[in-house]
Design brief:
alpha+beta, four-stranded antiparallel beta sheet, 3 helices, 4 strands
Length: about 160
């Protein structure tokens, strides 16, 4: 941060990827785009601005592995596709307070069934929100890009992007 403000300070609130661009713009003195969905991670006085973020969502779809997760301060639910090549369990639930290294999958514990259901519901609601109001990615390989740049993007796996 400018002037090394908050250097070495730990802020334990949840952060989302959508908050990174607004945060960088804020501290670079640039206006935020109206199209951005996030908010700066820090206030003007460098205090946390994310205390109200209760859940974060992430997903991965790469080389036949499909993962989707929702995390709160104390739990993380991860859903994986059946038969994925890494052998991830289809449903994983972790107690992040008791098991911060995520070594003990507690999803199979019958007493945790309500938690699994709660987090699956939260994940479904996040998916619905994203489908309804999320920003659609642009086609990366438009016709007006130089062929050399297209070749470089395709070489690192960006040749299939479509809106």
């Amino acid at each position: 941060l400018p002037g090394e403000k908050n250097k070495g300070t730990f802020i334990g609130d949840l952060a989302r990827h959508v908050d990174l661009a607004p945060t960088i713009a804020k501290f670079a003195g640039l206006p935020a785009s109206a199209k951005w969905q996030g908010q700066p991670l820090l206030k003007d006085d460098f205090a946390s601005n994310n205390q109200d973020v209760g859940f974060v969502h992430s997903h991965l779809n790469f080389e036949g592995i499909e993962l989707e997760s929702v995390r709160s301060m104390d739990r993380k639910l991860i859903l994986s596709n059946e038969g994925n090549k890494r052998g991830f369990a289809p449903v994983e639930l972790y107690d992040l307070l008791a098991d911060p290294g995520e070594q003990q999958n507690i999803a199979g514990d019958a007493q945790r069934s309500p938690e699994v259901t709660l987090y699956k519901d939260r994940l479904q609601k996040m998916d619905e929100y994203i489908e309804k109001g999320g920003v659609q990615p642009m086609q990366l390989l438009s016709d007006d890009l130089p062929q050399e740049l297209k070749d470089q993007l395709e070489a690192v796996g960006y040749g299939e992007a479509k809106p």
